[in-house]
Structure formats: C-alpha cells, structure tokens
Amino acid sequence: MAKKAYFEPPDVKVDFPALERTLLEYWYQKGIVKKYLEKNKNSKKYFSFLDGPITANNPMGIHHAWGRTYKDLWQRFKNMQGFKQRFQNGFDCQGLWVEVEVEKELGLKSKKDIENLVEGNLKESIAKFIELCKGRVRRFAGIQTEQSKRLGYFMDWDHSYYTLSDENNYMIWHFLKKCHEKGLIYKGHDSVPWCPRCGTAISQHEMLTEDYKEATHDSVYVQYPIVGRKNEYLLVWTTTPWTLPGNVAVAIAADRDYVVAGGEVKGNTYYLNEYAAKRLNLKIEKKIKGKELVGLKYISPFDGLSGIKKALGKYEHEVVATDEKILPVSEEEGTGLVHVAPGAGSEDYKLGKKLDLPVIELIDEEAAYISDLGEFSGKNAKKHPEIILDYLKENPEYLFDIVPYTHRYPACWRCKTELVWRVVDEWYIAMEPLREPLKKVTQKINWLPKFGLKREIDWLDNMHDWLISKKRYWGLALPIWECSQCGHFEVIGGKDELREKALEGWEKFDGNSPHRPWVDEVKIKCEKCGKKMQRIPDVGNPWLDAGIVPFSTVSTDNKSEPLYWKDKGEWEKWYPADFITESFPGQFKNWFYSLLAMSTVLENSEPFKTVLGFATLLGEDGRPMHKSWGNSIEFNEGADKIGVDVMRWMYVRQDPSLNLLFGYKVADETRR
Ligand SMILES: [Zn+2]
Ligand SMILES: [Zn+2]
C-alpha cells in the first residue's frame, strides 16, 4: 500500500501570469509604484545607479530581462535601506543599428536609395530618413517600457533618458571640444575595415569576436616573375585575391630561412619557405636567408592597368623585409612571402607607410573597382572575386594554384556583410596619450567578477586610436567644421558656440535637433583664411552616445537641464555612479570603454565605482537562442507562459559569471 504524502504537492498549474497582471494593474492604479519611487526623496543618503541604455530598436529580449532584474533588485534593496535614487532608465537611439532596420522596412538596398527617398532631393531625403529613424526609436522605446513594467521593474518610466536628446548630443560636442583642446582629434588617412553595404568604416571597437564568421573563399598562389632572372618566381599566397591588383611589394622575414625549389614545370624555380615547399610537394634545391631576397624586383600581372601605372610612377614591385611588429610573417600559413597591398589592409598600410611604398586605391564605397582599372572598373570586387581568378587563369604564367580556404572572416556587426579594407579619410581620437590615465582610472573600479579588471586592461593595452566617424545619416552630428580651402578645422563645443560663430544658415537650423540635414545648414568662418567652413558630413560612433550619459542625463527630476552644467556640486553627489550592471561580453570594448574614455577626459576620474558583470543567456540546449533552431523565446511569450516572478527567480539564483540556460523545461522545474 502506498503511503500518502503529508502534504499535497503544490499545484504547479496555478496561472501565475494572470495573477501578476492583476497585481501590476493594482500597483500602478493605486500609485504604489509612485510611492516606492518617492519613498526616500528627502533622504541625505544617495545611491547612484547608472543605467546602460537599451537599444530602442526591437522588442526587449529575454536576455535583457536578466540584466533588468539585477538592476531592479539592487535599486529595491537600496530603496529599503533609505537611499535617495534617480530610478532613471535609458534608451540608446542613434546609429547604424536603427538605420539598417529602417532600410529593411523600406526595402532600401544602399545609401543611394536613402539619398533618393524624396526623388532628386538629397536634403529632403535625409530629413525624411531621420524622421523615420526617430519614429522607430519612439515606437520601440514605448514597447520596451511596457515590457519592462510587465517584468515588474519599477523605474521612473515617464522620464527615461534618450541618447538622441539635444542634451546628450551637445554634451558629446563638449567632450569632443575638450579632446580637441588636448590635441587629440585628427583626420587620418588610413586603410580601415569597411562594410560595402552600409558604406561605412567599422572601427576596431565594433569588431567583436562574434562578428567573425566562418567563410570559404578561393585562395590563390600567385607566382611573380623576378626581373632579370629567367623562370624564377616568388611564390605568394593570398586569401583575398580581389586585393591583388593593389599589390606593391612582397614582404619576407629577413632573418629566417627560405628555400629555392623546383616545380613540376621543368626549369621553373620558386622562392618560398621550407614548410610551404614540402606542403606543395616542391623539390627543395637549396636553403637561403630571407635577407638575400630583399631588393629583388618582380612583375605583377596587373601592371598594365592605367590606374596602377599612375599610382606606381617610377616605383617597381620589390621584395621588402617586414617589420614583425607591424606585419608578422606566418611560418605555417602561406609561403612565408606576404602579398602587401597598402590600399587594402591595415597592416599593409602601416608597413607601406614605414617603408614609403606607394598606395594603390582599388574600390569605392560599395566595393566596386574604381575607374582606371581597365576591365575591372565598375565591377564589384567582393561579389565577383572570380573576375580576378579568371584573369589569372587567362594569364597562367602568374598563376600557381587556386585552393578553397575556410577561415574566420570579419563581417559587419550590423548587416553581416563581409568586410573589405579601404583607404579613406576618417576622424579619430588619439588614444595613446590616454592609455595610461585610462588604465589608472580603471584600476580604481571594483569589478565583479574580478576577472573583469584584467579583461578591461587587456583591451586598453591593445586599443588603437578611436575611429569616431561614420559616413552615414542617423547619429550624432560630429561637431567638426572644416575649411575646404586651407584644410583648417574647428571643433564646436555646444549650441551657444555654434550660434555665436554662425556665418549663415542659423535660421534654417534653429528649432531643429542637432542632426543631419539641418545642422549642416550652419556655416562658420575659417579663422585661418577667412573662407566659409562647412560641417563634415560624418556622424559619430554610437558608443560616444552611451559613454556620455553620466554627464548628460543626471538632472534634478530626470527631465531638465543636466546638473553637470547647472549645478556641478549637486551633480557630484551622483558621480561617480555607485553601481552599474551589464552583460560582460562586448562591453569592455564598448560601453565600459566609452564611459572610461569620456570620464577620463572630462574629469580624470572613474565613471562608476562598482560594476556587476554577468555572462550570456543561452537556450536550454546550451546553444545561443536562434529562431531557426526553435530554442528562442520572446520576452512577451516567456512572461505569458512562465510568469515574470518565476523568470526573475531564475535570474537571481544564477551565478552571474556563468552562462544562463533558459527555457520552458528549466522554468517548470523552477516553478516547483
Ligand atoms: Zn553593414
Ligand atoms: Zn581656411
């Protein structure tokens, strides 16, 4: 006979979600949330929580609810302890992520489509596009607000901050002006990663490991005939054949061993390293030192194209000794002889600069070959790599072999298009003078878990100058006015300064937000040559928007002028923030970094005292949530099926340093 249990098992089928909805309604109707928010408004004790803005571009995800649960938990705890708080939520509003979604909605394919939204009228087109971006942000900020309330997250929901606000944009102007006063702002001519669909540079900060995708490309072994040596070739390998017309040099490691080897064709001799010779089944004849190759001249199959002739001038292709710190030569991959195209690679460009090599520019904004490149001109280098391969097949004296090659290749973080490298003018903040001050500031912060400190320092040790410009539309209007006559540029620090310096166009701009196209109406006078200066058309890196919020968003009532300008003494009670919490992956290069950089420049102090980092939310099968894998759960669906109390319990009992596996099975167990 089975024994009867002492207690009936709890009824796990109670409709928690329905109970929650009733309760939430009651809380808001009876003003309980308001009472909660105002409980300590006269307290002398402050607890400053700073919200990392959520991108208002899509409905909130189930992973956002994890972070928002921590945010709520900390503030509730401090509220019970009697601390005065701001309870301010933030929305991140500007940048490429919004633009790309609006483009998708409208079915736009390129920047040309955006610029022709109102046919034949560039300014009206941009104005319309900007309005659509603002509209999308408003829509999703509203949706995310409702979802957050549904989560039971108590905040001052009527006064969230928006990074598109005038205060936020002008505060960044102020920051950039300070940078300029320290001599940190410069226009760089450099080879940068570039998205051919978005038509914009992608900064080092934006290239996260997850933006590298596995891709198979045709790699090529090219044989370059050596000038004055019959049947002798340099054997060079590249995974990006589209860059071959841009070749100017072959780099080798001068102090390493190379070999002279014979191939299948009788009498042909190749120079390469031993490792490659064995892999390619070449017959090694003798060993030589790398430095014996330096100075050899060779011929490229693309030398006949007029654009290349012009770029090379009197220069002849040459073997050069690499600088391992700039362009390391791999022993195992390739042949030990590296194709150098300064117009199509960052390291190549740097090495070329050091060795004074010519730069051959190859492609335009959309990765189409530019004019003067003969049969290639106008064709897309990235979409049609076969045009180069076919050309080599037609000129077999230069082709050794074509081999498919699978590697991790960087893609645009926003639209997933594979990146290319292009030489362009972009604007930078020089980070070298800030590296040590930033590291000092970083060490003052309490990182939870502890390894966060090391991760941040690692990034600061490796960061390049900060590429802050984007040739796009919806974003911070970089406050840089440039003289086309003499090249002088000026950085404007705020609206008042712009009004004072405006030579013309103020009346067209006044009354609009400081965005394209309106702010571009304002012209100022060049103090060097007296000519008119125009704002550069570029918009800013979106992490500037999120990094400035300790300065731009703190106000008496979450809705008026920043205290940083109005009452610095009061502002200092909220700064540095006592606490922030965000998912660790990615933020070391992004939000944490931009907060640190901007606070170091403006106040030389840490922007926050403690950061709680947490890991990544995955599906319950341990894989990233993905609609096509069937393990993805929308926030609304989760809240309706599981109930937010159960979800919040799942979040808070999790070790934040470990990935959280989330799904209905786990939820069912939790509910018991
Ligand atoms: Zn893109
Ligand atoms: Zn000038």
TrEMBL record:
The keyword Nucleotide-binding applies. This is isoleucine--tRNA ligase. GO terms for biological process: isoleucyl-tRNA aminoacylation. GO terms for molecular function: aminoacyl-tRNA deacylase activity; ATP binding; isoleucine-tRNA ligase activity. It catalyses: tRNA(Ile) + L-isoleucine + ATP = L-isoleucyl-tRNA(Ile) + AMP + diphosphate. It comes from Candidatus Woesebacteria bacterium GW2011_GWC2_47_16. It is an enzyme of class 6 (ligase). Residues 23-652 form the Aminoacyl-tRNA synthetase class Ia domain. Keywords: Aminoacyl-tRNA synthetase, ATP-binding, Ligase, Nucleotide-binding, Protein biosynthesis. Gene3D superfamilies: HUPs (3.40.50.620), Valyl/Leucyl/Isoleucyl-tRNA synthetase, editing domain (3.90.740.10). Catalyzes the attachment of isoleucine to tRNA(Ile). As IleRS can inadvertently accommodate and process structurally similar amino acids such as valine, to avoid such errors it has two additional distinct tRNA(Ile)-dependent editing activities. One activity is designated as 'pretransfer' editing and involves the hydrolysis of activated Val-AMP. The other activity is designated 'posttransfer' editing and involves deacylation of mischarged Val-tRNA(Ile). It comes from the Bacteria. InterPro entries: aa-tRNA-synth_Ia, Ile-tRNA-ligase, Ile-tRNA-ligase_type2, Rossmann-like_a/b/a_fold, Val/Leu/Ile-tRNA-synth_edit. SUPFAM superfamilies: Nucleotidylyl transferase, ValRS/IleRS/LeuRS editing domain. Its EC number is 6.1.1.5.
